[in-house]
């Protein structure tokens, strides 16, 4: 192998990578927070909500879980304008991520809710709480606590999956690699560098989410001890 | 300007779906074989092999599949191999699938109660015999639902190969959307095709899992 690795381009192109990383972080922040919120709502709809809403959510979840993220993204960005719904590429990417994570996290959170003992619901009712109050104060937090590691993994998967948003010209980390390789012809080095950055982001994000989980659920654990 | 009828679009997409199916099958079969090798290295006695496979799994699960495809596409070329998109796509998908399957199957092997190991050891079985007659048959049974479930991820993963230029159903969809100016219809149809491929798989995974749970309760 007579190939010589050349990383000289880093000196010129590091700002492109930096702004790419920042875009990827913004995407997962919005996608993660709104996606989990949507997931909580959908999990509620499937377990406690009215029957018709449960059915709509079930169809939504199955549609999203059985189609590739790339197609969901293309449908939102290229397909929806045809019926008059226009948005810029960043909004489309964020919407696709929220819809995608919403479906996956709905299933995960639902598992947590279904693992909640029936007595919890009855205890809430016996304190004259409305079903919504019981869900909000009694059921949801322990359910989230149970499935938090699985939810954290799913957020990391969505962050890694977000690399395809470069296909609709969102200037994320993958876009930075594409941009650099098209200018310098150092394709392998550029993709290698961005792969390592993604690995670092995945490790940091997982660690941060697990610590965050420890933090918000800590008071509860102390109270139950 | 050529007018595209709906049936022409559907026929072209179904034709390209064949390549999605072929690539999924090859990746799953190849990834399964490599995954089996990785599994034995991971649960074997050699510490070095364990660490090596753990690192491999972390690497492939912690980086985007798209990056792995790019690296295969541009990286294999460094070794003087002329890389067609289908070669890079197959190589990357096999490596990626293997990492996930090895990890799923490892979970199944470690789920076998310790008493099973001890019982078979007390019968004077060697490590190989324990694996062959006691542990693996039981692990195989519980591994079926998650393995079928993961096959959905493989089918969806093949969509990314369109980005390095492999013409499967997503790439065909992109070409058709550009040619027909009907992105809503075309991408809707592509999504429907993926749904028809994936839903039977994820549904049977769910049914298998439920059956397994019922069997456990006895």
TrEMBL record, chain A:
Chief place of localization: membrane
Where does the chain cross the membrane?
20-45, 52-78, 90-109, 147-170, 190-212
By its UniProt entry, which Gene3D superfamilies does this protein fall under?
MetI-like
Keyword hit for rRNA-binding: no
Q: Tell me the GO molecular function terms.
A: transmembrane transporter activity
Q: Which UniProt keywords apply?
A: Cell membrane, Membrane, Transmembrane, Transmembrane helix, Transport
Q: Name one GO cellular component term.
A: ATP-binding cassette (ABC) transporter complex
State the Pfam families in the record: BPD_transp_1
The reply on keyword RNA-binding is: no
Q: Which GO terms describe its biological process?
A: amino acid transport
Ranges for domain ABC transmembrane type-1 come to: 21-209
Q: What InterPro entries does this protein's entry cite?
A: AA_ABC_transptr_permease_3TM (IPR010065), ArtM/GltK/GlnP/TcyL/YhdX-like (IPR043429), MetI-like (IPR000515), MetI-like_sf (IPR035906)
Q: Where in the cell is it found?
A: Cell inner membrane; Cell membrane
The way it spans or sits in the membrane comes to:
Multi-pass membrane protein
Protein family: Belongs to the binding-protein-dependent transport system permease family. HisMQ subfamily.
UniProt protein name: ABC transporter permease subunit
Q: Could you tell me which species this protein originates from?
A: Pseudooceanicola albus
TrEMBL record, chain B:
The protein's GO terms of the molecular function aspect are: transmembrane transporter activity
Classification via PROSITE patterns: ABC_TM1
Which InterPro entries does the entry mention? AA_ABC_transptr_permease_3TM, ArtM/GltK/GlnP/TcyL/YhdX-like, MetI-like, MetI-like_sf
SUPFAM superfamilies registered for this protein in UniProt? MetI-like (SSF161098)
Residue ranges crossing the lipid bilayer per the database entry = 12-41, 62-81, 87-105, 184-203
Q: Which superkingdom?
A: Bacteria
| UniProt membrane topology term | Multi-pass membrane protein
The record, for Gene3D superfamilies, names:
MetI-like
Q: Name one GO biological process term.
A: amino acid transport
What does the entry list under GO cellular component?
A: ATP-binding cassette (ABC) transporter complex
Q: Which keywords does the record carry?
A: Cell membrane, Membrane, Transmembrane, Transmembrane helix, Transport
**Main localisation:** membrane
Domain spans labelled ABC transmembrane type-1: 17-205
Q: Where in the cell is it found?
A: Cell inner membrane; Cell membrane
| Family to which this protein belongs | Belongs to the binding-protein-dependent transport system permease family. HisMQ subfamily.
Which NCBIfam families does UniProt cross-reference here?
A: HEQRo_perm_3TM
What's the protein here called? ABC transporter permease subunit
Source species, please?
Pseudooceanicola albus
Which lineage do the record's taxonomy fields give for this organism? Bacteria, Pseudomonadati, Pseudomonadota, Alphaproteobacteria, Rhodobacterales
